[in-house]
Specification:
Helices cover 39% and strands 20% of the residues. A four-stranded antiparallel beta sheet has the order 2-3-1-4, with helices on both faces. It is globular. The protein binds adenosine-5'-triphosphate and magnesium ion.
């Protein structure tokens, strides 16, 4: 497997509780390298675009309100098999189902306020990275 990049968000429930460093420690312990990172306040438009795949779901409005409720940290992570590896480190969407040692098991408050996002495929990773970073902001 070649080096791969994935897109990560440290979500408002985590930034509000000052858990940015604790989340980053789990990312780095897993062997993933943070090759770009910035703290931003997402606009409603950015959040709606980012989660457009879920726009027909009943939780869409709640999800967008949550994502703009406080600052987030957007990141690009690099490593071998980074997309699948980060999904493993994140744990299941619902923290009650997340495995021991995962970010969501350790920190998530609920299925909605679940501390982190990670891309689910190479195509979505490329689109998500391009939504928030220009090429010269990513230094591997
Ligand atoms: P993400 O895309 O944020 O990495 P995921 O891929 O594990 O999470 P998705 O099914 O893509 O899960 O859902 C996107 C996000 O929508 C979840 O992370 C969560 O914040 C929110 N969400 C998903 N299901 C629910 C639900 N039943 N109720 C409330 N919020 C939900
Ligand atoms: Mg998802």
């Amino acid at each position: 497997m070649a080096l791969q990049r994935t897109f990560s968000i440290i979500k408002p429930d985590a930034t509000e509780r000052n858990l940015t460093g604790a989340v980053n420690a789990k990312i780095e312990e897993a062997g993933l390298r943070i090759v770009a990172q910035k703290r931003i306040q997402m606009t409603r438009g950015q959040a709606e675009t980012f989660y457009a795949v879920h726009k027909e779901r009943p939780f869409f409005g709640e999800l967008v309100d949550f994502m703009i409720s406080a600052p987030v940290v957007v990141q690009v992570l690099e490593g071998e098999d980074a997309i699948a590896k980060y999904r493993d480190v994140m744990g299941a969407t619902n923290p009650e189902q997340a495995a021991e040692g995962t970010i969501r098991k350790a920190f998530a408050k609920s299925i909605g306020e679940n501390s982190v996002h990670g891309s689910d495929a190479p195509e979505t990773a490329a689109i998500e990275i391009a939504q928030f970073f220009s090429g010269n902001e990513i230094v591997g």
